[in-house]
Write the structure tokens for this entry.
Amino acid sequence: MRSTDDAGKLLLRAVLAILLLFHGVSKLSGGIGFITGMLQGLGLPAFLGYGVYVGEVVAPLLILVGLYTRPAALVVAINMVVALLLVHTGQFFTLSDTGGWALELQGMYLGGALAVALLGAGRYSLGGINGRFN
């Protein structure tokens, strides 16, 4: 393994986690009423909306510090798939005003989470390079 591989893993983990945490903090301060409302509108239990805290606060924190990194990244990926299906289905085949895919941010979060799940945390992590789930 090249010496820069672990630095690259750290950078990917940090960017993904920090950017997702902004969304999580927003939901901590503003609530998740809109999510629980959407779930209820689909006939699903409202309590499932609390899973957003796991996907946008707990999992990003684990990814950031490099502990249970692979499972946490899979949680983020699942969270993003749910967000795409719940909120963004009408935008799947649309472009933004600037010509990019309307869901490029969500796509990058999903792709970044899957990359972290495949790559693991690397040496610069609390779990270490030989951690069972890193």
About this structure: The chain is about 65% helix and 0% strand. The CA atoms of residues 32 and 50 lie 8 Å apart. The mean pLDDT is 91. The helical segments are 3-30, 33-41, 51-65, 69-87, 104-119.
